[in-house]
Specification:
The chain has one domain: Leucine Aminopeptidase, subunit E, domain 1 (3-Layer(aba) Sandwich), CATH 3.40.220.10. 41% of the residues lie in helices and 21% in strands. The protein has five helices and seven strands. It is of the alpha/beta class and 183 residues long. The protein is globular and about 45 Å long. Strand 4 and strand 5 form a beta hairpin. The termini are close together.
Length: 183
């Protein structure tokens, strides 16, 4: 599914983010920037040592990455030149700042893309795996955050993809697209 926000193509794709043909992919990381499972594990396995070495340097200089923030590393062996690592919130009850922190993940990642002149970026569904954020809620937050930043900035990537691992997640994002964009 594809839609347009200003001059940006927004695409929802079911697939494997490690195979994305974009300049940057976003990693749903942990705050220590150490290897994990899910999206993080898949990206690190596909990208190789360059990603781990860059994350180790960030850990050494900055101590990691706080929830809602993002950092950038080389893409290593991936097609993507860059990996933007962002730390989503762990779902508690929805009343502990989770929506704001999740929105910040998407907006901080896009801001890094803008600062690095990245024209195409792919996101996973952040925080909906082991962090337990309900996918239906996360999808609305994600698409709304992206829409808001795109409408506020004139330098955003020309292509923004959401690469969603399974059919259930893809369906949640399709439903959220209707909610957020009315299409």
């Amino acid at each position: 599914m594809q839609t347009q926000i200003a001059e940006t193509n927004l695409e929802l794709i079911q697939g494997d983010i490690t195979k994305a043909q974009v300049e940057a992919i976003v990693n749903a990381a942990n705050s220590a920037l150490v290897g994990g499972g899910g999206v993080d594990g898949a990206i690190r396995r596909a990208g190789g040592d360059a990603i781990e070495q860059a994350c180790a340097e960030i850990r050494s200089s900055e101590g990691g990455c706080p929830t809602g923030k993002a950092v950038i590393t080389p893409g290593g062996n991936l097609h993507a030149k860059y990996v933007i690592h962002t730390v989503g919130p762990v779902w508690e009850d929805g009343n502990s700042g989770e929506p704001e922190l999740l929105a910040s993940c998407y907006q901080e990642s896009l801001q890094l893309a803008i600062e690095n002149d990245i024209q195409s970026i792919a996101f996973p569904s952040i925080s909906t795996g082991i962090f337990g954020y309900p996918t239906e809620k996360a999808a609305v937050v994600a698409l709304t955050a992206v829409k808001e930043l795109v409408l506020q900035s004139n330098a955003v990537p020309s292509t923004i993809q959401f690469i969603l691992f399974d059919e259930a997640t893809h369906t949640c994002y399709l439903d959220a697209l209707l909610t957020v964009f009315g299409k």
